[in-house]
Structures are given as structure tokens and as C-alpha cells.
Amino acid sequence: MDQKRMAESLVRKYGTRDPYRIAGAMGLIVIHAPMQGIRGFYQNMKRCGIIYIDSNLDEQQSRFVCAHELGHALLHRGYNRIYMDTHTYFAVNRYEIEADHFAVDLLYDDDDLLPFLEHPVQLAADCMGVSVELASYRLQSIKA
Q: Residue 74 needs a FRET pair 20 to 30 A away by CA distance; which of 1, 21, 29, 116 works?
């Protein structure tokens, strides 16, 4: 299942696009704590999923990070990013891109983004609080 279908399936199942509510309904623990150099990460410890989010982020960034880490929890279960970075030659950037795509697919409904199709992508990126590349991906995935 691709990221968008998985995100839409979660929205239907839980009746919300709020990544915090979805994470809670799935039994994941979300912890806000000050962090240095990272915005968040996902950890599975003793079959308990935990999403850590930098407490210094604003609300929009925090929601995006929560959705991104939820993407890792669903798409990359059992992967250890730190181990892969330090002990393998896997292209871990692919997993980050997949989690980013999942996050914008979860957070933004097609209908809410339709007005941005008539404007420069930069406007959508600014409103969504994401990069132009990520906003472009999300706008291109709209089914009008």
C-alpha cells in the first residue's frame, strides 16, 4: 500500500487527520522533550511504540513531525535508522522521503488543497510549512 492510500485509510478509520489522535488510538506514546539536532524520532521498545518530538518546535512543525514519525511506525516497522546510518550502506534517505510523503498525505485533504493548484507552489509550501518539493509532491497527488 502506498503512503497516500495508507494515510487515507487511517483518516477513514479514526475519523481525523490529527496525527496525535491517530497515534493515541493506535496505542503509540508521544513524548515531547527538548532535543539537539533532531526534530523527532520513532522507537519501538518491548513492542511499545514511542514517538519523540522536540518540544522546541511550533505547533505546525510538531504536527508534521508527529505525522512523519507515525509514517515510520507504519511504513518502516522494525527498521533501526541509527543502526542503518552507522553500520550499513542502505539509502536511508528513501525512508525519510516516504515518511515525509505520508505526513503531508495524512495532514492535508485533497479538497483543502484544490485552491492552491491555481497559485505558485511556494504559496502552498508556506501555508503547509513544508519545502517546495514536498508541497509539489502533495499538489501533484491531488485527484481532482
A: 116
Query: Sorting pLDDT into bands at 50, 70 and 90, what band is 89?
Result: very low
Nearest to 67 by CA among 35, 94, 42: 42
- The Cα–Cα gap between 3 and 30 comes to 21
Cβ neighbours, 10 Å, residue 30: 19
Q: Are 81 and 92 in contact (CB under 8 A)?
A: yes
Report pLDDT for 108: 96
Mean pLDDT value across residues 23-34: 96
Q: How many CB atoms sit inside 10 A of residue 103's CB?
A: 27
**Nearest-angstrom CA–CA distance, 40 and 64:** 10
User: Is there a contact between 68 and 105 (Cβ–Cβ < 8 Å)?
Assistant: no
What is the layout of strands, in order, in the sheet containing 40-45?
29-33, 48-54, 40-45
Complete domains list, the chain, with CATH = 3-107 (1.10.10.2910)
Confidence of residue 43 (pLDDT cuts 50, 70, 90): confident
